[in-house]
Design a protein that fits this description.
single chain; about 110 residues; mainly alpha; two-stranded antiparallel ribbon; 4 helices; 2 strands
């Protein structure tokens, strides 16, 4: 039994079964582990927030900070894929702006 693929090649069914088995027994990649760690860290932060009652101002600050962090992650992802110099410069400016906004939200530590 052969399976035809659109790009013009044939693969025996046994090869497909072997590939499927190989994919099942392989360890997870670093990407999925990193995502799992990020989810765990986010859940830990939420747990800390639940334990301590926040003021409305603190809640608003946290929402703004979370939104800025999401935007920062999006910009970093786009920078990894950018190939036009002008686009990269624009993303770098946006990243600098986001970092400046995040710095404003950090509590002031007396020296």
């Amino acid at each position: 039994m052969h399976i035809y693929y659109p790009h013009g090649s044939y693969y025996p069914a046994i090869v497909l079964i072997e590939l499927s088995y190989y994919n099942q027994i392989m360890a997870r990649g670093w990407e999925s582990k990193a995502v799992e760690e990020q989810i765990g860290a986010a859940e830990a932060k939420k747990e800390v927030r639940r334990k301590r009652k926040l003021t409305p101002d603190e809640t608003e600050q946290l929402k703004i900070k979370d939104a800025l962090l999401l935007e920062r992650a999006r910009i970093v992802r786009e920078m990894e894929r950018a190939y036009m110099r002008r686009h990269l410069v624009m993303l770098e400016r946006g990243l600098a702006h986001i970092d400046a906004e995040l710095a404003k939200l950090e509590p002031k530590v007396p020296a």
